[in-house]
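Q: Fold this one first, please.
A: Sequence and structure below.
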Amino acid sequence: MRIPAHSVCTAIRDDIVAGVYERGSRLTEELLARRYGVSRVPVREALRTLEAEGFVVTRRHAGACVAEPTEREAVDLLEMRMLLEPLGASRAAQRRTDAHLKVLRGLVRLGQERARRGNSEDLRSLGGWFHETLAQASGSPALTSMLTQLRHKIAWMYTVEAPADPVESWAEHGAIVDAVARGDSERARAVTALHTERSSTAHRLRFGGPERANGVRNSQHAVNMSGLRH
């Protein structure tokens, strides 16, 4: 495999998330450079970035290794997501562009159509694209970066079951976009908070013995969801 030097970090991260490198396994510069067809310099830089992101740790006498997150750390990620995604939606209602809104509406149309047809193959990727665009619409590069890292880490640490009712899930996406389009930041925050909390129940840890529920407590949000379905 030969990839551009600037893409080495993304490639290693994607392989860690996909399980190509097991937790705790060594990541030597020489082997990584050979695998991705680059020199050791971009590999070294990538490992530093991935260490800052929490995917890699440096151990005495072993060098760079894939991190081994604890169950508590994994649960913390979902709790952080439940705080930050509603904030991002609230900011998006204030700062989104017409281009962001066009993409969001297009994704909702696709998601709702495929959910009604029972075609679930593409729904996960469409959902990821939706939340990525929503984060970008917040107009905050720092917040967008944090949410992107959270999505990567959650994908690494959890398996995600398909929603019991994908039509309802995409109706919630539509309600978020409606609030963002109206510039209603409080509504956008509230609907996103409820959507994020509901989706968190579908996450199951990949590690720590038998698969477990995420352990995040389900609080009851007093959210007015009238007009949710279209």
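Q: Good. Now the second chain.
A: Here it is, same layout.
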Amino acid sequence: MGQTEGLADRTHATRAAAAARGVDAVAARMRVLDASWPRRDGVAVFNRVYLAVTQEVGRGVAVGRFPDARAAVTLDVRFAERYLEAVEAATADRLTPACWRPLFQLRRHPGVRALQFALAGINAHIGHDLALAVVDTCHGLGCEPADLEDEFDRVGDILVSLEERIREDLMPGPDLFQVADPLTHLLGSWSLDRARDGAWSAARVLWALRDFPGVAEELRGRLDDAVGLVGRMLLTPLPD
């Protein structure tokens, strides 16, 4: 390996490590929240899931899984900040985005299962926050949504793999399958893949409307309300 190639590799490694620290800072905030909430709290259930996703993104950045580490970290951090801002609003008794309200309102309901809490949080974050985070990132980096598609897809792949694990870990066992049949039906009506595809389409439309702020704001409001409605259905209390 020549000196130029060696320098390029070291530079890339240094930048990747610096970028990963941005993700680590977000993960640290989530760990603080995890330590402050009861384990069965519905928002805590989602927070643990999201912490696992964030840590996986950080590891991916550190090992060069993302071709553009800066773009990946910017997207990941802008994405996480929307969830953390919703937490701060709820903690201060301020109004949260409509997409998050069902989870915060029902976080201690005894008739809602852990899997419902986890997927309702994912629904809010993917269905609403991800689209806005893409737009935020494009503004911040001076790029187009198409420039972020690889990073968007790689983060989405991590989410899909974790969603499968979440369903396996939190779904009631075979002996409870008949009792849990309403849960199976309810959660089978929601798809992370469809939510991710919808977020990408919404991000592209919002970016195209960036010179029409009134129309873009109306679309954001309708998206927020629609995702909140889905979240409320996902959190339908079920009999024991």
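Q: Anything worth noting on the second one?
A: Residues 123 and 191 are 9 Å apart (CA to CA).
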